[in-house]
Amino acid sequence: MSHPVDTHVGKKLRNLRVLRGLTQTDVAKSINISFQQIQKYELGRNRISASKLYEIAKTLDVKPAYFF
Length: 68
What we know:
This protein is mostly helical. Helix content is 63%, strand content 0%. The protein has helices at 4-19, 24-30, 35-43, 50-60. The chain is globular, with a radius of gyration of 10 Å.
């Protein structure tokens, strides 16, 4: 079962990614992971580490705090 914070962060990631017009593959390539991992992040199934959250925020041009 996903923790509510992981689900919240994943939804914020998905919404911003779509707003920016990026695919899961685009984001995944920019931070050196698979698109399947982005799917898991967006669904809240996997937690995003601090370093990956920082890289994702940089890719999407927001501060890491945006996700909270």
